[in-house]
From TrEMBL:
The organism of origin for this protein: Rhizorhabdus histidinilytica
Residue ranges annotated for the Post-SET domain, each copy included: 119-135
Keyword Transmembrane among UniProt keywords: no
Protein name: SET domain-containing protein
Pfam families: SET (PF00856)
Annotated PANTHER family: HISTONE-LYSINE N-METHYLTRANSFERASE-RELATED, SET DOMAIN-CONTAINING PROTEIN
Amino acid sequence: MTSAPEWATAQQLQDDEALDVVRLDDSRGLGVRTRQAFAAGAVVHRFAGIVSGDICQHSLQIDASRHISGTRYIGYLSHGCDPNCRLDMVGFVLVALRAVAPGEVLTVDYADTEDRLHRQFACCCGAAACRGWIHGRREAPNPEGLAWLAEHDAR
Ligand SMILES: [Zn+2]
């Protein structure tokens, strides 16, 4: 476990009045919904948490060896292949990629930050460019993913 840098843990984990963690549905689990509109490029949220070398279900990768967990919101962001937000792992901010309306579920591309996912999964984001099977940027689809891709390519 690496020591936590000051800039990641100095902040308190406070409620953000703009965001809610909500249950989306049974297949997608928890997600983050915004109560506010954000313009493209706007900082949606500043986050803090516990920095360590461990990957867990709700951790996010900071750099080659460090991950942040125990965050108030960003660990619950949904994946989207054409997301409305991105994570800045240097500034520790969530940034809107396009205009976001109140009530929208916030999404990021998990493969933007994660070398390896805690769990690979079939995506149902609905984007025209949906990749179908989601895995980390430095790992191949697992056997379940290869089977899934073979089945869906065949259609
Ligand atoms: Zn997708």
